[in-house]
Amino acid sequence: MSKFTGKTAVISGGAEGIGLSIAKALAEQNMNIVLTDINEENLQKACLELEENKVSVLPVVLDVAEEDQWEVVAEQAIARFGKVHMLVNNAGVGGDSTSIESQNKKAWQWALDVNLMGVVYGAKVMVPLIKQHDEGGWVVNVASMAGMGGVPYSGAYTATKAAVVALSESWAGELESEGINVSVLCPAFVQTRIYDSERNRPAQYKSDKDTR
Ligand SMILES: NC(=O)c1ccc[n+]([C@@H]2O[C@H](COP(=O)([O-])OP(=O)(O)OC[C@H]3O[C@@H](n4cnc5c(N)ncnc54)[C@H](O)[C@@H]3O)[C@@H](O)[C@H]2O)c1
Q1: Which of 22, 122, 164, 166 gives a 20 to 30 Å CA spacing to 13?
Q2: Strand partners, 142
Q3: What would the DSSP string read from start to end of 153-173?
């Protein structure tokens, strides 16, 4: 029995890619999984796959940029599993690849809302649930190597990931006395669909030529 056995993890952006791999790894440690994603169809597929492998999994559709949707995840997680011990803030988008002169406000807002505010809202809603049972827990933020050094033509992505690294360091100090460990994962290149993030861009973040 590991220290994770029977505990519950909430994972954002868990329908595919790194998020789904993390879900499988945590399930191997016998954790209950609350799997969330903006893409309902992929989320259902991922949950079926996990259930076929006898994982206790609860799917909840979540756009991480919407704080009220995090509240729904919290309610459903508590109703199904009773407690939350781990938050994995994994959902992220690549943002636009553009020169300095072509920066666009809507594209920036999309990267900021998903990659940065999504992480903030996740912690704001889930950390109180982790604190309330006094068993300690974990917050894992998925940033990027881009957050440790700049990527040319990816200003918004780089800036949001650097912010997630900094936030994680701040939260580690804040939560240490509560027995909550904060980690930040900074992957290099992993073969996923991050380079096709456009598929997940909601209409309000789509830019037209005249938008600055
Ligand atoms: N793949 C890489 O090379 C790489 C490198 C460094 C960091 N990362 C980071 O890893 C994390 C996971 O990315 P990935 O490579 O698995 O990408 P991916 O595109 O394969 O998967 C991302 C998942 O997040 C979901 N998602 C997108 N927008 C969302 C939103 N607003 N709310 C909720 N879910 C949303 C997608 O539907 C998808 O299931 C991201 O934070 C990314 O920045 C990836």
Answers
A1: 166
A2: 185
A3: T-HHHHHHHHHHHHHHHHHHH
Amino acid at position 162, single letter: A
Kindly state the tokens that stand for 2: 């590991």
* Structural domains for the chain: 8-201 (3.40.50.720)
What is the per-residue DSSP string for 62-104?
--TT-HHHHHHHHHHHHHHHS---EEEE----------GGG--
Q: Is the CB of 72 under 6 A from ligand 1?
A: no
Query: Mean pLDDT throughout 7-36?
Result: 98
Is 2:12 a contact under the CB 8 Å cutoff? no
pTM over 0.85: yes
pLDDT at 207 exceeding the cut of 90: no
